[in-house]
Amino acid sequence: MTPSTEQVISIKGLRKSFGDLHVLRGVDLEMTRGENVAVLGRSGTGKSVLIKLIVGLLKPDAGKIIVLGQDVEKLQGLELDQFRQKVGFSFQSSALYDSMSIRENLEFPLIRNVRNLGRADIDKAVEEALDSVGLSQTINQMPSELSGGQRKRVGIARTLILKPEIMLYDEPTSGLDPITSIEINNLINEVRERFGATSIIITHDLTCAKTTGDRVAMLLDGKFERIGPFDEVFADPDERIQQFYNYKFVN
Ligand SMILES: Nc1ncnc2c1ncn2[C@@H]1O[C@H](COP(=O)(O)OP(=O)(O)OP(=O)(O)O)[C@@H](O)[C@H]1O
Known about the structure:
There is one protein chain. The chain is an alpha/beta fold. The chain has a single domain, classed as P-loop containing nucleotide triphosphate hydrolases (Rossmann fold, 3-Layer(aba) Sandwich), CATH 3.40.50.300. The chain has nine helices and ten strands. The chain has helices at 47-54, 77-86, 102-113, 119-132, 148-160, 178-195, 206-212, 230-234, 239-246; strands spanning 7-18, 21-32, 36-40, 62-67, 70-71, 87-90, 166-170, 198-203, 215-220, 223-228. The strands form two sheets. A six-stranded mixed sheet has the order 6-7-8-3-9-10, sandwiched between helices. It has a four-stranded antiparallel sheet with strand order 2-1-4-5, covered by helices on one side. Helix 6 links the parallel strand 7 and strand 8 (198-203). The radius of gyration is 18 Å and the shape is globular. The termini are far apart. Adenosine-5'-triphosphate binds at residues 18, 21, 23, 41, 43-49.
């Protein structure tokens, strides 16, 4: 795929505090169409807060977030609804409704967001989305009958069903074994190839960051202190970065 120069996300000087807790202290990020950026940072550094700001679930204290040419802070009502269809958010917990079958879970965002869809259109969209995550056979099952990895895939399918231009993945591999994690990483890359999606992948998992991110962004002390290709970022001798890289080996 030819790299695009079209800018789809532009974040400048973003700041967000909760009382005395200064979580984001000047975040900058520019992303072009089709790019994947993995955001790394320790627990509580504000990664989920950043995602919530990008989709307009939180308001910034200062700074600008322009997504798909729109100033997110100014969106409201119908415009905000339409914007959220273009920006898919795949939650950490995969957030499936336990009382609904897989088919019903996938239909839900379609029925809620897209008007005038007939039964045949809905069935086709559900089948395509499940097929794109390799889980067609689970269509009539309940979430409780699926493994953690399968539930994550269904969560991703449910986000994909609206064909978003931007995908935000919040810890897509958390709680999964290494092999299943690799399958999810591959799926994230496939989503980019097949749908041309621009993605932010929030993760603690270095393998996930390395395999899915064209660039990784290290969130340290409320800023992206380093953004670049994985190997370049981790070649930095900064102790905080090396600590993160080596954390697996610390007893
Ligand atoms: N609505 C809120 N009100 C008050 N504090 C909040 C709110 N949302 C987040 N915070 C605080 O902001 C900080 C950053 O939270 P966030 O969930 O973004 O961390 P994170 O980097 O995603 O962590 P993890 O990797 O553990 O998921 C935390 O200290 C959290 O308690």
